[in-house]
Task: inverse folding
């Protein structure tokens, strides 16, 4: 990304990792042009391993590694009198991973590029199939934004197949959900991505689970949260539910709900291999309503 | 219940401590503290005249803020006396900065260098560095460190913190990235660092409270807060910084929008590593200067 490229250019340590490569060096190169509408590739950095990714960015590598990193390619484009534009393509091995990374970074969605895109001045992020693409300009400008759109369309056209959105996402009740207000994940760190729940992996989330956490309208300044985790086997789901119970409601639930010490309501339910939990609801009715909606989606 | 750190456990502990029933735990800082009875003094100083409409820094205003902060921190009679309490003439001083697009202002680096020299340190015994500290001859023989960096969100650790600024003291930064950088406080046990830090300055002149993508720079998520957070305890300084960032996020998004992922390395630096105080009940926060939009 633009800021990291600055580091790459400025830092002695990072100079060692610059590889000026011919354009046709990795399969990902085929998704990018050498030139497009007056812009030319100035340098290309293949990122073939987690180590490459770590060196390329400060800490940001973990986002991709937590989903499933195959390889990536960073290419910087330049055009006279314009800020540089950096295009990064991440091959995340499975479409669910590309989708998951996208859900972590987008604030809203459009269908302008790929399977969904998020644009802010000077940057565009989108996903398609197993690829997540980040395009950013060193400085926002009309010319850079135009090139960003052009190259996004180019890349999107080169990725000919679409990927599947994980089924667990379809279990989210639509009523009251904040637009683009969910994250899909299969690494335990993201369980806290909207709301601190636990420091430990009490839900036994791993590569084989599919999880989604979503925000729902509760009041003007309050949200309630729905966590749905689908396990590969019913036994795994039962173990996770027992662990959740031990940590959050050892005293048991009444009508699948419990009022916690802050006056908010917690809801929990296990249906087959699917665990559902509601956090931060303002009332028992509110918790029950969202939980029942989720149960209905699961049983549907 | 077990000793795992969960929201429910925190709520119960909070209730036992009778700290009130409306505590927000999107950043789980408030209910937990170290066993020490000593509060960590943290100075938050702001000045509306620090930056102009173009974001340019007024060096004189910055110098005044910096000196006032150390005076309030040390309770010294003057800035000179305060700096002499912090840095001794025989010290070899590494100023650990942070070079990124939203970098430690060069004006602040220059002022710190001046203050160190004014305290009697030899010109050849002070160095400012970020990514090459392990190869810097002054840092290699340093007896004192000043830790200074800008406040910004971070894709994996929640925020780029005072604690995290020492990541360049390890040849393998990625080895501290596990579990969303939970154990960054361990960096402070490295021999290059341990016991050397005299001052922590979290630069909140133009903090970045949100980001899009990993390590992206999003100007629309930067605002002129015009502040410095200064302290001896890096955990307490970080805790104050996160509080401000989260308040800004709440204002901007019109709802609670906790850092993603949470900056848990800060409270774990307190509860797990006992490096300092993240708990506000153990922080003596002194506010000075401009109060409009202070957020804390």
Result:
């Amino acid at each position: 990304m633009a800021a990291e490229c600055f580091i790459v250019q400025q830092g002695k340590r990072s100079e060692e990792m610059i590889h000026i490569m011919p354009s046709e060096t990795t399969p990902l190169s085929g998704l990018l042009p050498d030139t497009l509408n007056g812009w030319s590739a100035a340098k290309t950095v293949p990122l073939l391993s987690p180590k490459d990714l770590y060196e390329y960015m400060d800490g940001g590598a973990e986002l991709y590694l937590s989903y499933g990193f195959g390889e990536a390619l960073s290419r910087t484009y330049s055009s006279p009198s314009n800020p540089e534009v950096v295009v990064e393509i991440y091959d995340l091995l499975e479409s669910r991973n590309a989708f998951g990374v996208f859900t972590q970074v987008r604030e809203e969605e459009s269908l302008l590029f790929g399977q969904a895109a998020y644009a802010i001045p000077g940057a565009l992020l989108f996903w398609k199939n197993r690829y997540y693409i980040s395009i950013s300009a060193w400085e926002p400008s009309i010319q850079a934004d135009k090139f960003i759109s052009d190259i996004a369309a180019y890349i999107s056209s080169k990725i000919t197949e679409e990927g599947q959105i994980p089924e667990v996402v379809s279990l989210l009740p639509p009523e009251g959900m904040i637009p683009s207000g969910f994250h899909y994940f299969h690494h335990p760190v993201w369980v806290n991505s909207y709301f601190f729940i636990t420091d430990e992996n009490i839900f036994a989330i791993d590569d084989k689970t599919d999880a989604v956490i979503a925000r729902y309208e509760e009041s003007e300044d309050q949200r309630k949260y729905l966590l749905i985790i689908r396990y590969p086997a019913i036994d795994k789901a039962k173990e996770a539910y027992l662990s959740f119970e031990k940590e959050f409601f050892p005293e048991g639930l009444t009508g699948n709900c419990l009022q916690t010490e802050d006056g908010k309501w917690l809801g929990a339910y296990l249906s087959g291999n699917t665990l559902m939990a509601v956090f931060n609801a303002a009332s028992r009715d509110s918790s029950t309503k969202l939980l029942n909606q989720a149960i209905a989606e699961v049983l549907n | 219940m077990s000793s795992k750190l969960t929201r429910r456990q925190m709520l119960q502990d909070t209730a036992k401590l009778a700290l009130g029933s409306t505590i927000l735990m999107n950043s789980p800082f408030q209910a937990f503290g170290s066993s020490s009875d000593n509060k960590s003094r943290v100075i938050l100083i702001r000045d509306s005249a620090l930056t102009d409409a173009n974001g340019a820094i007024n060096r004189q205003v910055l110098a005044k803020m910096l000196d006032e902060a150390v005076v309030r921190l040390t309770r010294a009679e003057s800035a000179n006396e305060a700096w002499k309490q912090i840095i001794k003439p025989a010290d070899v001083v590494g100023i650990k900065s942070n070079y990124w697009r939203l970098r430690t202002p060069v004006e602040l680096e220059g002022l710190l260098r001046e203050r160190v020299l004014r305290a009697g340190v030899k010109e050849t015994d002070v160095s400012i560095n970020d990514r090459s500290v392990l190869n810097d001859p002054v840092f290699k023989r340093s007896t004192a460190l000043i830790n200074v960096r800008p406040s910004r969100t971070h894709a994996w650790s929640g925020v780029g913190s005072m604690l995290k600024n020492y990541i360049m003291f390890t040849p393998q930064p990625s080895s501290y990235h596990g579990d969303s950088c939970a154990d960054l406080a361990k960096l402070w046990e490295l021999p290059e660092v341990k016991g050397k830090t005299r001052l922590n300055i979290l630069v909140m002149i133009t903090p970045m409270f949100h980001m899009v993508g990993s390590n992206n720079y999003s100007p629309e998520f930067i605002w002129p807060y015009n502040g410095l957070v200064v302290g001896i305890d890096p955990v307490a300084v970080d805790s104050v910084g996160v509080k401000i960032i989260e308040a800004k996020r709440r204002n901007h998004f019109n709802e609670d929008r906790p850092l993603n992922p949470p900056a848990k390395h800060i409270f774990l630096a307190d509860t797990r590593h006992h490096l300092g105080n993240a708990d506000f009940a153990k922080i003596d926060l002194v506010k000075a200067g401009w109060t409009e939009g202070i957020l804390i």
Observations:
- Chain A has two domains: 15-158, 167-299.
- Chain A touches chain B through 61 residues (CB under 8 Å).
- The radius of gyration of chain A is 22 Å.
